[in-house]
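Let us work through a complete example step by step.
Step 1: write down the sequence.
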Amino acid sequence: MLQQMRSASKLIFILMAISFVVGFLLLETSGILNSSAVTTSTAVAEVNGTDILYSTWQQQVNQAAEQERQRRGRALNGDEMRQLEQRVLDDMINNVLLEQEYKRRGITVTDRELQQAAEYSPPPALMQAPELQTNGQFDIEKYRRYRNSALARQSGLNLYLEQYYRDAIRRQKLFDQIATGAYITDERLWNAWRDQNDSARVTFVSFTADRIPDAKVSVSDDELKAYIKDHEKELTRPGRAVVSIVTIPRTVTAADTAAALAKANQLRAEIVSGSQKFEDVARAESSDTASGSQGGDLGKGVRGRFVADFEKAAYALQAGQISQPVKTQFGYHLIKVDSRKGDTLSLRHILVPIQQRDSAARETDRLADRLGAIAAGKTNPAAFDSAARTLGLQIVKDTIVEGQPALLHGTYVPDVSAWAFKGAHAGETGDLVDADDAYYLARLDSIDHGGTPTAETAGPEIRGIVLARKKLDLLVPQADSFAKAAAKTSLEDAAKPLGLIAYQSPMFNRNSNVPGLGRFNEAIGAAFGLPLNTVSAPIRTDDAVVVLRVDARKEADRAAFDAQKVAQRGQILDLLRRQRIQDFVQNLRAEAKVVDNRKKIDQATRRSET
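Step 2: predict the structure and record it as tokens.
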């Protein structure tokens, strides 16, 4: 066992060392760190005055990208890299904030705590290592022998464990401090139970903003400024860009489909005849490279993992059987069930994609080469238009949002969004994108980098919100007069002369979203506070001014509450502790001064390249 681990560990640690050295040398020798935009001291972000170095961030991004590449069996595209970069930076920012909090609170870790943790609480990654298991279960004695072996000392395992536990123990101590004292009284438990199990039905009349014409209400710049200041976070918006895109589709014909089916049948015949093993064919032929590298292995699981046609065919097989070719949106699949127990299947597949045959693909590639030669990477916007005219391609405009992929008529266009928001200039054309379904080329027509609007830049949407709020204020006196009239007659009778409708709700609880009333607002609360058959005073919500009457109410069952109170307390306490920790981390981030320098670095890098 140790001999196997010796080989694996040496390879892993050698690769880690090489990747670190090569990654650093790549940064040093590529000119990135020595350019005018980025140096060895450049901070990709600053957190309460603490720098996160660009080089460190890039190293962690590269490591995470390599892990994702191995998991997916392919390289990440531009949009996926952008998301990964954001995730890595968020993690690094949170780690800096936690380090600052450990220091502020004086949280440390003793050598004894490190030793005990390493002895009795192995990291999850090691507990899952096959070499440390016996009969499918983690064997702590094997782990301890390995930890005390020369191999562990040579490979740096103890150093890794020290770093792992130093962070994990401090984090647990911090979170224990935050969650300590979490307690919930019987009264709060009962209120939570009532929120879910009390129910009411109401009749209501809504006075909505559209009852007052826009012309009768005005919104001043001061009112806009006040609203923006009060709602700054929710109004901060991502960047938006307008792009022009041309497409050269990889058009698939009936003949292409037939060719893919013929290949799938050929592969199946080779496997069934015994001339080839399923696993070997998967490694050599499957278009799903992630599972293909594992002999087509898709793991073990229950229903709901796969698209409908694939799953229907898989569950029709017995263990050891190989399906006929199964067509899905991904191509033709050959499915083999390794084992089956109830709804749990362990299975493999081989994917044969439906794609252009060689002659058609060569023509598509030739056209894409011409497009790229004329317009790709050009800063003159006319080159893009000229290429489209010359090659007879239609230009389609699309608006994309920062952090979201470009969608053209519902079809995902890779890389375009990441390129547009990574320092591209209006009028510039990007690189030719070679995707599975088509070639794409995009030109950036305009870009708005987003942020918080001002009174001068606030669009019609924000002005409309403020306008609606002012209208609701004006409607309160009307609703008050209506409520007094309804108290003397009924909601239904008082509504008719005003052209209003009295709506009756279904039964609902305090957590419900009630059509016409909303959720978690004053109107829902009034439904459980007013006496039955009493007309309320005007109730101002975000969407309307409401007058309501409670028609029916059913109270929660106290005996049912008492029967489940212990279990309920455990569940709520666990949620409460988790929520406290989550709120704490979110508040740390919200109150921190975080400066993200990526856009400045991207723009400076592009300037230095021109």
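Step 3: interpret the result. The chain has 23 helices and 19 strands.
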